[in-house]
Specification:
Ribonucleotide Reductase Protein R1, domain 1; 13 strands; about 300 residues; Rossmann fold; 5-stranded mixed beta barrel; 6-stranded mixed β-sheet; about 25% helix; OB fold (Dihydrolipoamide Acetyltransferase, E2P)
Amino acid sequence: MSGPQEGLVVAAYGRHCLVESPDGVRRICHPRGKKSQSVVGDRVMWQATGDEGTIERVIERRNLLHRQDEIRTKSFAANLDLVVMLVAADPEWSESQLTRALIAAEAEHIPVLIVLNKSDLKELFDRAWMRLAPYRRMGHTVLPLCLSEGQTQGLSELAAYLHGKNSLILGPSGVGKSTLVNHLVPDAQAQTGEISRALNSGKHTTTSTTWYWVGEGRQTGLIDSPGFQAFGLHHIEPMQLAHLMPDFHATLGHCKFYNCTHLHEPGCAVQALVGVDAGDGSGPAISENRYRLYRELFDELSQTRY
């Protein structure tokens, strides 16, 4: 029997997953014993056992993202080069969801690309573009996109950003994420069906997170995670939060107290800039909405740690 070999986790369901070896062959693999569960994007060492395999260990991750529901926080994607946040002119996107995603990516040192779809809805698009002004000022790239009625404006620019990277694409319902994935990966639905059959034997729905290769050569990876994840932030300390919000950066270290929470202390440099015009036409240096989200997240992260 040959020894352990390296593979890439391309889908996961329960305690088993689909691992792709360097030759492109995919096999169902199971963890050995009660070792930690693998997530999509993991590089693993696995051992063949007949037509399937056993995961011996997970190779050290460069980064890891978590999602959470009402019960628990769970990891779901690893080793990312880019997070693509897809929002749209309609329906209106949630700034709270976007902020949580940006903080989660910042904590793991993963660059974020924001893509605003439905540029054909000019009035709604212009309004949404203005809402994203603070994020552009923070240094985030925002790309316009239109994929309606046969149009593919902005698709080539987006594809250029993705080339050669392993990217996670996220977006709430109704923003056109499935359309985008199908443009980038024309056989995505067929691949999803194959993965579902391999992992679930037709007994369950498709996997929640799936890896696709974009184009030939397996150089560009795209991870699709249905829905807009509620990112798990409970591994972040409350006092770390301000350091993960770029619009707060210029003020850090200038507060009267070194351990300032930026909530109520006198002489707080953060509070002093809330609602103050940045002077570049992009609005306030720190918007009241962003500061409100900071306070809400600080309170959430200050609750019982687990």
